[in-house]
Write a structure and sequence with these properties.
- This protein has 247 residues and is of the alpha+beta class.
- It folds into 3 domains: 59 residues, Glutaredoxin, CATH 3.40.30; 110 residues, Phosphorylase Kinase, domain 1, CATH 3.30.200; 69 residues, no CATH class.
- The protein is 40% helix and 17% strand.
- The protein contains 8 helices and 8 strands.
- The protein has a 5-stranded antiparallel β-sheet with strand order 4-5-6-8-7, with helices on one face. A 3-stranded mixed β-sheet has the order 2-1-3, covered by helices on one side.
- Helix 1 links the parallel strand 1 and strand 2.
- The longest helix has 25 residues.
- The protein starts with a strand and ends with a helix.
- The model has no long low-confidence stretch (mean pLDDT 76).
């Protein structure tokens, strides 16, 4: 049974939603962040960055569920050495669902595979309840098959898990590390390329070109700045309502 250490906040509820959707049994251990319980030594031993929610699977070796361990072992290539298993944190979303990796060596080179809990996407709430899961699978399959990228032979889209390979030498790009505006522009350009790449799963190149043909070269950067301004204003308005006792 999984132990869920959390509190009654929007982020704190996300893991329980995932566990309910996956049908996994769990116990809740409240962590009152209003009283600073996330800084207690017993919680820091579970999650050193003092953030809720945090989950532990006492039934799995080293907290790794048996099913996830088997999927990781099956995903590793033949001939690999002994595997090491650990939890993975990658981005803010990793605090909200389980991500696990296995690392091993093959002919002296590192090999990495990941399994992560499959959480309900936004498409599930757009569909009628009776056909939500079928349409969700159709959307996921269409994107995976239609996107233009090197195929991942390890990719498996299961009912409760997603299995995939990871590049062992990949490094996350931190926005704070981008010192020059040219670096930011290059990053935004490739973000646009990848967005178009994913859209090719549901539209042809001829359908996409008219959407960008008449746009200025800096349209993505300008759209990003508008989004930042709108988000900042929304936060300002929310803070003002909170100070007045509103929701």
């Amino acid at each position: 049974m999984i132990d869920l250490h959390t509190w009654s906040t929007p982020n704190g509820r996300k893991v329980s939603v995932m566990l309910e959707e996956c049908g996994l049994p769990y116990r809740v251990f409240p962590v009152n962040i209003g009283k600073g319980e996330q800084f207690r030594p017993e919680f820091l031993a579970i999650n050193p960055n003092n953030r809720i929610p945090a989950i532990i699977d006492p039934d799995g070796p080293d907290g790794i569920p048996d099913r996830a361990r088997r999927l990781l072992l099956d995903a590793l290539p033949d001939g690999c050495g002994p595997a090491t298993f650990r939890r993975r944190t990658a981005g803010l979303g990793s605090r909200d669902h389980l991500r696990l990796i296995a690392t091993a060596a093959l002919a002296g080179a590192p090999v990495v595979r990941e399994v992560k809990a499959r959480t309900p996407p936004a498409t599930q709430w757009q569909c009628a309840e009776q056909d939500a899961e079928q349409r969700r699978d159709d959307v996921a399959g269409r994107i995976l098959l239609g996107a233009r990228r090197s195929p991942d032979p390890s990719l498996r889209y299961l009912r409760r898990w997603v299995v995939r390979r990871l590049a062992p030498w990949s490094d996350r790009i931190e926005l704070t590390d981008l010192q020059r505006r040219a670096d930011v522009a290059a990053l935004l350009e490739w973000m646009g390329v990848e967005t178009a790449n994913v859209h090719l799963a549901s539209a042809s190149a001829d359908e996409l070109r008219p959407l960008t043909r008449r746009r200025a070269r800096t349209w993505l950067a300008a759209a990003t700045e508008q989004m930042v301004a709108a988000t900042t204003q929304d936060h300002t308005d929310w803070c003002a309502r909170r100070s007045e006792g509103g929701p």
